[in-house]
Specification:
Blueprint (H helix, E strand, L loop, with lengths): L1 E4 L35 E5 L3 H15 L2 E5 L9 H22 L2 H20 L8 H14 L29 H10 L6 H4 L37 H31 L4 H12 L2 H6 L6 H20 L7 H14 L9 H14 L4 H29 L18 H20 L1 E2 L4 E2 L2 H16 L11 H22 L12 H19 L3 H28 L3 E2 L8 E7 L3 E9 L8 E10 L9 E8 L8 E6 L15 E9 L8 E11 L4 E2 L2 E3 L2 E2 L5 E8 L11 E7 L3 E10 L6 E9 L8 E7 L5 E4 L19 E8 L12 E7 L9 E2 L11 E3 L9
Parallel strand pairs: 2-3
Antiparallel strand pairs: 1-3, 4-5, 6-12, 7-8, 7-15, 8-9, 9-12, 10-11, 10-13, 13-14, 13-17, 15-16, 18-19, 18-25, 19-20, 20-23, 21-22, 21-24, 24-26
Helix pairs in contact: 1-2, 3-7, 3-8, 3-18, 4-5, 5-7, 7-8, 7-10, 8-17, 8-18, 10-11, 10-12, 11-13, 12-13, 12-16, 15-17, 16-17
């Protein structure tokens, strides 16, 4: 009799059985025909059913396989060893299924890295990853001539690397360039002309290394670099960027393979090590640029994977791993000179393996010699060629070095600063090391690095020799980088990326040791690392890259929400309108003025145009802040504008802390031709404006409510249900005879007209002694601009031979009137009763108590 326990089949599986297995395979057309395998459903004798109930339940729940049980009569031949065999078989089934589910980790890592990489790629304009023009210059030469470029005898000058129309300035091992050239095709010869350095270099202004998004770009980005108007060279560069991204994916996969060797049974620590690669913002950024670093990093990572595999192998025979490692070593040195750091660890691995496998000395020499032959055949020929032809085997003379050392102390201080810059750019620096994240992030990276490194101070017996090999590679790469930082002024942390996978694994091992010492759960360390670095990786594209590199030009249908101006400068530049943010401005705050431009007419010989913006009250000479920038920004200056585009340029201004407020302010705009140093004439509403100056605004700058002082003499009067008088201060004038009266107004509702304040000091007979009429705030803040709830301290001067001691003889009459009709604004007291003559009558008292 046969009884079947059956669960729905989700997927077929094949499990190796011992040769003497008593469990028969069910005849199923979809089953494997190989002997010693079972597929789909399988049967277990009922004599073992009591044991299967325990062992098979989790298996059935996980796999969905059918478990069939033969109810046969027990015999003396079925004894307890078969129970053990059943248990082992089911455990192996469950373990096999679990190991298959672990493929989710590398798949998820690759998917996340690909999505993040694409996002970084979309926010990074062409030419803005380090040395991208130089690398593409070599690729373009190979694609055009089907030859490797000779070494140029010329040297580049200037802060921004330029591109030669003939022989490339850059000279490096060619493997990456050969692979990339196959994606380029016949690119037009316009690439050299398209590489235009930031015009601020010519103006004596360096890149902005401080906070702020302005002037971070190394090159100008024309319309030919932006879809859908991509030039052929730009499309080719985008394809090569995809190749670099593919190499980045290979690095992620290699890191997972290396992590599996270190933590074979702990997928969470594997995921932590992979996360340090997947979410490293700088690695994401570099993996989307045209650079031979991307190929070198992938080759180095897989070389370390093979080294670890050789150390863990128990097969004494020389197989594919040794020769594949030799091929990778040769490919690495054919990609970049840094690949030579792989040779000492690889040699050490071979020596250790020879000792483990008890190789005879002859076999060791055979492996070493054969490996060197392969390495030389693959990559060494290029260095031999350089040594014979140029007398420079490593091709290092083409790299610019700093002047000779004059003071060791100064150079050491400089190198320390360079090292800190390299550390920051290892984790999070973008552009040509011009865009940095907030200092708090670097403090967090310092803490992670210190904890990871100091964790190795705890002496523990190593369970594997792999970390020792990784440490050797990290120290070699680190030492080489220190030499680079001593000789050059290029603190790029990406120079450590050839060992990014080993370094990530070593840091994770260090954190693991700390957690073991502190007896904290592993999940604490894992989440503390992965979550913040993932958050930063998600923040960078839109929080740092987009503000610095966002395109300035936009289609007309996307730029419509602005206050219209319709002014034209020199019949070339049409200012459509503007916006100001935030809506409420205060002294000491930062504001953004956005101007919307359009090219009206193209000039025959266009010049750089400087836009000067000054923020000032009614009197232009009383400016409180100003900014001077290139029209169109350094990313897309005016000479490169195209008709039909709308250029959206943002200007950030910081208001002075002591800017008089509340008050109305204007934005005075002037355009200056940098070639002739003359102002461009401006026409607004068919009128040629004086001094070639356009006043934009006004905009109110208000006081924070907490910044308004309280009056010494309190009062409560309401004018037309719109304005309230809360009190006044009366003091002697500071530098001349007379008194200064400060009235403390509050807007109950936004006034409907521009009222003028009248202040009359009269004697006992009602005769006028002094008068201080005027628009509030010396004419700088008319009442119609008062937002509801605003507090306005308003000072009026009472000139004449009057002082605080004689105030008992006088009375103050004050209120509002319409300057056009002379009609006064009705006023009521605290009781709500209207006052006669629509004027407040006060017996004045000085703030110091005199009367």
């Amino acid at each position: 009799m046969r009884t079947v326990m059956r669960t729905p089949l989700i997927w077929p599986t094949a499990v190796r059985q011992p040769a003497n297995n008593i469990y028969t395979k069910k005849q199923n057309p979809s089953a494997s025909n190989k002997s010693g395998h079972i597929a789909d459903d399988f049967y277990i004798p009922a004599v073992n059913l009591f044991f299967v109930i325990v062992s098979a339940s989790p298996f059935a729940a996980v796999s969905g396989h059918s478990i069939c049980v033969d109810l046969i009569q027990p015999s003396n031949t079925l004894n307890r060893p078969f129970l053990l065999e059943t248990r082992i078989m089911l455990k192996r089934l469950l373990r096999a299924l679990q190991s298959q589910s672990r493929l989710f980790l590398p798949a998820a890592g690759l998917l996340i890295f690909a999505c993040l990489g694409w996002t970084y790629r979309q926010q990074t304009p062409l030419l803005e990853t380090p040395d991208e023009p130089s690398h593409f210059e070599v690729i373009n030469y190979i694609a055009q001539h089907n030859l490797l470029p000779p070494r140029s005898s010329e040297t580049r000058t200037g802060p921004a690397p330029t591109v030669s129309e003939d022989v490339p300035f850059y000279y490096a091992p060619p493997l990456y360039y050969l692979l990339a050239a196959s994606l380029v095709g016949q690119v037009d010869s316009q690439f050299a002309q398209a590489v235009i350095p930031n015009p601020n270099f010519g103006r004596g202004i360096g890149l902005n290394l401080a906070d702020g998004a302005n002037n971070k770009n190394m090159y100008v980005h024309t319309a030919a670099q932006t879809p859908p108007n991509l030039a052929p060279w730009a499309m080719a560069m985008q394809r090569v960027r995809l190749l670099s991204l593919a190499f980045g994916l290979a690095t992620v996969l290699g890191t997972w393979a290396l992590a599996r060797q270190i933590w074979p049974q702990n997928w969470r620590w594997q995921a932590t090590a992979v996360a340090l690669i997947v979410f490293n913002p700088t690695f994401l950024y570099i993996s989307n640029g045209v650079t031979n670093d991307s190929l070198l990093i992938a080759l180095c990572t897989w070389s370390f994977v093979l080294m670890g595999s050789l150390l863990q192998s128990h097969n004494p025979k020389i197989g594919w791993r040794e020769w594949t490692l030799a091929l990778l070593l040769g490919a690495s040195i054919l990609t970049k000179q840094t690949g030579f750091i792989l040779l000492p660890p690889a040699l050490l691995v071979v020596v250790v393996r020879a000792r483990q496998m008890a190789w005879p000395r002859r076999r060791l020499w055979l492996v070493v010699t054969g490996g060197l032959v392969v390495v030389t055949a693959v990559g060494g020929w290029w260095y031999l060629f350089n040594g014979i032809v140029y007398g420079d085997p490593l091709a290092l003379e083409s790299h610019r070095a700093l002047p000779p050392v004059e003071s060791i102390a100064e150079r050491l201080q400089f190198s320390l600063a360079q090292s800190w810059g390299a550390f920051k750019s290892y984790w999070a620096a973008f552009g040509w090391a011009t865009i940095f994240v907030q200092p708090l992030w670097y403090a967090w990276f310092v803490a992670l690095t210190v904890l990871g490194l100091t964790g190795w101070l705890w002496r523990e017996r190593p369970s594997s020799k792999i970390p020792s090999i990784l440490w050797l590679a990290v120290l070699l790469n680190g030492g080489l980088m220190l030499v680079w930082l001593w000789r050059t002024a290029a603190p790029y942390g990406r120079l450590l990326f050839p060992v990014i996978a080993p370094l990530s694994c070593l840091l994770v091992l260090g954190w693991q040791r700390w957690l073991a010492r502190l007896r904290w759960p592993d999940s604490v360390g894992q989440l503390a690392v992965v979550l913040p670095v993932a958050a930063l990786a998600l923040l960078v594209p839109f929080g740092y890259l987009q503000p610095a590199f966002a395109p300035v030009a936009t289609p007309p249908d996307r730029a419509t929400d602005y206050l219209p101006l319709d002014a034209t400068f020199d019949k070339q530049f049409h200012l459509l309108g503007y916006t100001i943010a935030p809506e409420t401005l205060q002294p000491g705050s930062e504001l953004t003025l956005t101007l919307f431009w359009r090219l009206a007419n193209s000039a025959a010989d266009p010049s750089l145009i400087e836009s000067v913006i000054q923020v000032a009250p009614l009197n232009p000479e009383a400016q409180v802040t100003a900014v001077s920038e290139l029209l169109g920004t350094p990313r897309y200056p005016a000479p490169f504008w195209q008709t039909g585009e709308i250029i959206v340029q943002q200007h950030t201004l910081s208001l002075a802390e002591d800017a008089p407020a509340p008050s109305l302010y204007w934005f005075d705009l002037i355009l200056v031709d940098e070639t002739t140093q003359t102002r461009l004439p401006v026409v607004w509403q068919d009128e040629l404006l004086a001094d070639a100056l356009l006043r934009i605004g006004p905009e109110p700058i208000l006081l924070d409510g907490t910044a308004v002082s309280s009056p010494t003499n309190r009062a409560s009067y309401t004018f037309g249900q719109q304005i309230q008088l809360n009190g006044y201060d009366l003091r002697p004038a500071a530098n001349e005879a007379g008194l200064e009266l400060t009235l403390f107004w509050q807007a109950l509702a936004q006034p409907t007209a521009d009222w003028t304040v009248f202040v009359h000091l009269v004697d006992e007979n009602g005769s006028l002694v002094a008068q201080g009429d005027g628009v509030p705030r010396d004419g700088n803040f008319p009442t119609q601009w008062w937002p509801t709830g605003t507090h306005i301290p308003d000072t009026h001067r009472l000139a004449g031979e009057i002082n605080c001691d004689a105030l008992s003889q006088y009375r103050l009459l004050l209120g509002f009137y319409n300057p056009v009709t002379a009609e006064r604004l009705p006023v009521s007291g605290a009781s709500g009763q209207l006052l006669p003559n629509n004027a407040v009558e006060i017996q004045p008292t000085c703030s110091d108590g005199s009367s």
